[in-house]
Design goal:
The protein is an alpha/beta fold. The protein has a single domain, classed as SPOUT methyltransferase, trefoil knot domain (Alpha/beta knot). It is built from five helices and five strands, in the order E-H-E-H-E-H-E-H-E-H. Helix 3 crosses helix 5 (129-148). The two termini are 27 Å apart. Helices cover 43% and strands 19% of the residues. The chain is globular, with a radius of gyration of 15 Å.
């Protein structure tokens, strides 16, 4: 199973890219963490709905066929690290790749959001996209280590 983060926005600060790379390299070969960044739509002279629609087309094109779709959304399900580890175990037993969708500044178009199999909330706080990606990578890594009994997670 692959974990694929499909996110709007191609340019991130160097610190965010370095942090992402650090967590991604820790994943086992049988469950790689991959990033597919798609171009954000220019906001000048366009409505939020137009921008989200254009970004939704790019996100849709980047999602592998048959992948489980997990929408990252501020209204998504809250999960502890242990709950995310349980969810990760269910995803693995399902056998499909998992695409975690991160929208642009205006979010994800409702038409694409409606195709999600589930939604997940990273925080009650509003997070910049660079930090959200790093937080997601760390949370997924922590979930994997918890499931493996690795000492990275302590309760």
């Amino acid at each position: 199973m692959k974990l694929l983060v499909v996110a709007v926005g191609q340019r991130q600060p160097a610190w965010a890219d370095a942090a992402w790379d650090e967590f991604a390299r820790r994943f086992p070969p049988e469950m790689p963490l991959l990033l597919k960044a798609v171009k954000a739509e220019a906001r000048t002279g366009r409505s939020a709905a137009q921008c989200m629609a254009a970004e939704a087309q790019r996100l849709e094109a980047a999602i592998p066929k048959g992948a489980r779709r997990v929408l990252l959304d501020e209204r998504g399900m809250r999960a502890t690290s242990a709950q995310l580890a349980e969810r990760l175990a269910r995803w693995r037993s399902g056998g499909s790749d998992v695409a975690l969708l991160v929208g642009g500044p205006d979010g994800i178009a409702p038409t694409l959001a409606a195709t999600a199999d589930e939604s997940l909330r990273l925080s009650d706080l509003t997070l910049p996209h660079a930090l959200a990606r790093v937080l997601l990578a760390e949370a997924l890594y922590r979930a994997w280590t918890l499931h493996q009994g690795h000492p990275y997670h302590r309760e």
